[in-house]
Amino acid sequence: MTDAAITTSPSTVVPGQRVSLLRVLGPAHVWALGVGIVLVGEYTGWNFAVDKGGSLAALIVCWFIGLLYTSVAMIDSEVTSTVAAAGGQYAQAKHIVGPLMAFNVALYLVFAYTMLEVSDSILVGDLIVTVAGTEGLERHAFVVLTIVLLAWLNYRGVLMTLNVNFVITAIAYVAIIVLFFSVQPWSQGTVLKLGELITPENALPYGWIGVLAAFHFGIWFYLGIEGTTQAAEEVRSPARSLPYGTMAGMITLLIGAAMTWYVCASLLPWEYLGFTFFPLFDAARATGSGFLETLLFWGTVLAAVASANGCINDAARAWFSLGRDRYLPTWFSAVHPKYRTPYRSILFLLPIALAFAFIADLNQAITFSILSGLLGYTFMSINIMMFRRKWPLGSIRRGYTHPFHPMPAIALLSICVITYFAVFLGYGSQLIAMTLFYIVVSVWFHFYRYKYVRRGDQFTMPWPKPVGY
Amino acid sequence: MWFTLSYVAWALSAVLAAWMLFDWFKTDTTYSEDVLTSSREGEIEAATEKHKL
């Protein structure tokens, strides 16, 4: 804050004034960003774990992957409450590990969120076409509208974007709660038939290898909660809002995942549950209630829209951060002087999402998103170890300190390894292709791009020197 | 009805995309590149968090 004032009001700036992202968000927005991105996973995606290993396998991975994400939420909360910058894990990697890791992490984030946005918009289009039941009607118009409308919303400002996300995420979550209590979960046999649908013979149809394979799609229960950190530069109090919003989001999702599995596994045969694209909507239809069917239709649409909305927000901020540090051309680091959003990054990623929405199918888009997310989680487990070693407790101020270190990091790394194996079982060629892709871009970054980076400028945190340096 | 809705969706998408492109052009021609790319990581952090315990 030397040559110009940092502007924090939404009014248009005068020439010469510095333009920054606005600090206008609170814990509720952080919750809306995290849960908004993830909740679509309860409406679709997790159920493919049932196809891999049966209903019981889906429940087991729901718990184990829940442990993985609880570790992610705790670790992320500690580091981000200290490294409060747009880019989230990218900024963490830059300060704690180094530039090459940071570049890769930013790409993981952009890929994970853009592919998830594509999956969400395809889901909206497919659901509308399914409900319409009109021959010849294609999903493309609805897919394009979803992506463009949400890009426009993001372009116009982060506060309205996340206010909208809060409302539609809350509606989608309440829809699950209403469905759960409508089927009388306290009285098995009245509506729910868990005992009939899951028997000792079909609980684990492929044995324990099926449980391992189910980790691949079990990750969908919570994929994206780490996206809360992208709001770090736009929350009023990062040290308080980020841990609070992220932890509240994780608790919300753990409850939502348990309710979702219980209702779906008690209403739909596992062979169908593992195949459908709309498990909660189909569960509502199985009850025979028109009200529940309508409610869960809108719940599915709103959850997908909320997820795509949060993904555009996060992918644009990761891309923007790369531009700001010259890891990519600085052109991408422009902030809109009126709306205070990374508008060029939003616009740049828009046609990319549209292109993938036309050429990719839902399963492939989901898998690319999962793989990129998984690489990011692996980084987090290493990152927190290095963070605690270089800056031990007491050396810098932390907004939140996670307990039981290093157990969460070890648990996270272990479950990541299991999930890599699960992904390899189903999508080995994609896993290898993505790994090769990241190796190639790393080589490009090291030998070609890094020479444009102003090395001293990229490390912005006013921390003491790390231990051992 | 559903086909009409899909045409409306195409039209609305085109309008929103055109609006964003127009605003992008207007913004880039109104402000200098130095102003638009003047955001710096950690500015507010540096002003408020000294990391002294």
How would you describe what is shown here?
- Chain A has 469 residues and is mainly alpha-helical.
- In chain A, 67% of the residues lie in helices and 0% in strands.
- Chain A has 17 helices and no strands.
- Mean pLDDT of chain A is 91; it is low at 1-11.
- The longest helix of chain B has 29 residues, at 2-30.
- Chain B has 53 residues and is mainly α.
- In chain B, 74% of the residues lie in helices and 0% in strands.
Topology:
The complex is a heterodimer of chains A (469) and B (53).
Chain A: H1 27-38, H2 40-43, H3 48-53, H4 55-80, H5 89-96, H6 99-132, H7 140-156, H8 158-182, H9 194-197, H10 207-218, H11 238-267, H12 270-273, H13 279-286, H14 290-324, H15 343-359, H16 362-390, H17 407-449
Helix pairs in contact in A: 1-8, 1-11, 1-14, 4-10, 4-11, 4-16, 4-17, 5-6, 5-16, 6-7, 6-14, 6-15, 6-16, 6-17, 7-14, 7-15, 8-11, 8-14, 10-17, 11-13, 13-14, 14-15, 16-17
Chain B: H1 2-30, H2 33-36, H3 43-48
